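Is this the right way to post structure tokens for a design question? Let me know if I should format differently. Anyway, here goes:
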């Protein structure tokens, strides 16, 4: 195999950059992780809550999923730009945009999961004395949980990328490295900054997905996992 001194030098330069700026990279990675975790939590409460309210009504289901689908089609830079006027720069437009984009997979999977529960199981729950609300939370929601969790995983991966783009409105996180690199094109460290930000987001995405896999194993009964 032929030596590749150029490639080796690139790797060496990148590792040296990471070593010299490790504190900054770790701080921005922590900010990025915290941002995504909080946004997904908000989106989960909203998406699952709305799904629980509308899944029995076809008109309400079509209205809510249609609205979130329209939001989903808006280009992220355009959405962030539109939010600058009412919310300014920084955390507020970043959180708003990420939550709005994260709603669709969670909402759709919540509605789909709840509607996929066998009606005979619901009737059986009513037959042993469970009311409508109790049957929803004791029977339907646990059976729909794997689908809801899948929606959360999709939304989290989506949010990771939107969080990087949010540096456009001075949002916190690893996107700041990528955005700063674009402003320093032609300098020695620009590629290293962009690569550090990109790899950091990839690593965080993998870690978050692993966390969701563990949550799924801990919160889903073995019988439901086998059935799924």
């Amino acid at each position: 195999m032929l030596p590749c001194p150029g490639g080796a030098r690139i790797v060496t330069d990148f590792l040296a950059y990471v070593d010299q700026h490790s504190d900054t990279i770790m701080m921005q990675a922590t900010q990025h992780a915290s941002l995504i975790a909080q946004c997904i939590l908000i989106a989960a409460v909203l998406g699952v809550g709305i799904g629980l309210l509308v899944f029995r009504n076809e008109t309400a289901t079509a209205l809510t999923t249609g609205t979130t689908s329209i939001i989903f089609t808006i280009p992220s830079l355009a959405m962030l730009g539109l939010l600058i006027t009412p919310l300014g720069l920084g955390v507020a437009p970043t959180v708003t945009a990420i939550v709005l984009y994260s709603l669709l997979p969670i909402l759709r999977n919540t509605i789909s999961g709840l509607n996929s529960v066998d009606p005979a199981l619901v009737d059986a729950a009513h037959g042993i004395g469970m009311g409508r609300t109790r049957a929803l939370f004791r029977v339907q929601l646990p059976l729909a949980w794997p689908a809801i969790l899948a929606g959360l995983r999709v939304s989290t991966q989506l949010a990771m990328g939107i969080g990087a783009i949010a540096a456009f409105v001075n949002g916190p996180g690893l996107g700041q490295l990528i955005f700063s690199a674009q402003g320093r094109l032609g300098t020695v460290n620009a590629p290293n900054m962009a690569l550090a930000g990109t790899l950091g987001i990839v690593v965080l995405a993998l870690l978050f997905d692993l966390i969701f896999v563990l949550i799924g194993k801990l919160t889903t009964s073995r019988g439901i996992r086998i059935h799924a």
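Format looks fine. Someone answered above. Worth noting: The chain has a mean pLDDT of 90. The chain is about 85% helix and 0% strand.
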